[in-house]
Amino acid sequence: MEMNDVAYLLLGGLASVRDDSIKSVDDMIKKGKELAEGTKSKVKSSSRDRKLDATIQDLVKKGRKESGELVTAIGDVIRDTLSSLGIVTKQDIKVIEKRLGVIEAKLGAPAKKPAKKKPAKKATKKASKKPAKKS
Fold first, then answer.
1. For the chain, which residues make up each domain, given as ranges?
2. Which of 124, 101, 102, 105 is nearest to 113 (CA)?
3. pLDDT tens digits along 88-125
4. Which of 88, 109, 126, 133 could be bridged to 104 by S-S, CB 3.0 to 4.6 A?
5. Residues 9, 1: contact at Cβ < 8 Å?
């Protein structure tokens, strides 16, 4: 290497460092953009998750309200049907028992407590006798 080449060596070295620096800076910018995009997508997905949770909660509330309304409507239909068919309900019996109690009190008869239901008898199993085997 000659003395005249030292200047070219330094110039080449500077060019090489500059190219490597530009490449490194470009790589850093690219990585920064990737990180920023990843963060944005995470923020967007968490925002979507919150919206989805809110929607689910709204649907659950509406479902509970509508199921309660449905139960009420079914109960009304059953009461109307029983009434139109003339079927006696527990409430009807309670009203009659109260009226009967008032009448008994006026007549001086001792008030009776409603009869308690006895538990149903269980069927007993009889031991079956097998005929003896003939040999």
1. 3-107
2. 101
3. 888 889 999 999 999 999 998 665 665 666 666 665 55
4. 109
5. yes
- Is the entire prediction scored with pTM above 0.85? no
CA distance 6 to 41: 52
Greatest Cα pair distance in the chain = 142
**CA–CA dist 78, 122 (Å, integer):** 33
Q: Which residues, given as ranges, of the chain have pLDDT below 70?
A: 1, 3, 6-7, 10-11, 40, 43-44, 109-135
pLDDT at 123 (0 to 100): 56
Single-letter amino acid, residue 12: G
